[in-house]
Amino acid sequence: MTKSVFPRGIDRSIMIFRQAAFADLPAMMAVISDAQRALQAQGVDQWQNGYPNEAALSGDIAAGGAYVLLRGNLLIATMALLPGPEPTYRVIDGSWLTEGPYCVIHRLAVHSHFKGAGAAARMLQEAEALCRLQRVPSLRVDTHHDNRPMRRFLEKNGFHACGDILLDDGAPRLAFEKVL
Asked: Among residues 143, 67, 132, 125, which one has the least CA distance to residue 101?
């Protein structure tokens, strides 16, 4: 029997959400790498070209928009929550639900060992709470058309598919919005 890394009396299920620091970068990249492998195993070509990378995550941290979720002392999820406008959202084949201010979620990933533990839902709840604190009435996100688990997750959590956008490299993505 191995010794637990958790002190006695500590609830291992407690998840702590906080802003990321540069010291978190290796663990954040481990979560991203795990997500890249999972997407590849599902046959989804999202995140298969070396992105997201350390430079993107470092930029999120420097901008104050990187967040992490910890379970015990393990970093299990990461995301960027950034203020709009998002340049790739200016043109949409469809229609956004709102025209006012919004925040954008990018690079949301949960380590596969913690899928189904409520980590992604917690990240969304925290993003919504941060938006409400800043009086931002809308939250937007995009994903690959073939990323069906993410699409279902977003719809289950109140996001509406609004149409297609193109990333800077011309790759199409399905864009979602939730009015808070």
From this structure: 132
17-59 pLDDT, tens digit per residue, is 999 999 999 999 999 999 999 999 999 989 998 899 999 999 9
The enclosing domain of 116 has a CATH number of 3.40.630.30
Q: Report pLDDT digits (tens) over 110-136.
A: 999 999 889 999 999 999 999 999 999
* Coil, helix or strand at residue 144: coil
For every residue of 35-80, DSSP letters joined together read HHHHHHHTT--TT-SS-S-HHHHHHHHHTT-EEEEEETTEEEEEEE
- Domain extent at residue 119: 15-179
Q: What is the pTM of this model?
A: 0.90
Residue type, 41: A
- Per the structure, how many domains does the chain have? 1
- Report d(CA 86, CA 67) in Å as an integer: 18
Residue 170 lies in a domain: yes
| Residues whose CB is less than 8 angstroms from the CB of residue 146 and which lie 6 or more positions away in sequence, other chains included | 42, 43, 44, 45, 46
For residues 178 and 144, the answer to whether their CB atoms sit within 8 Å is no
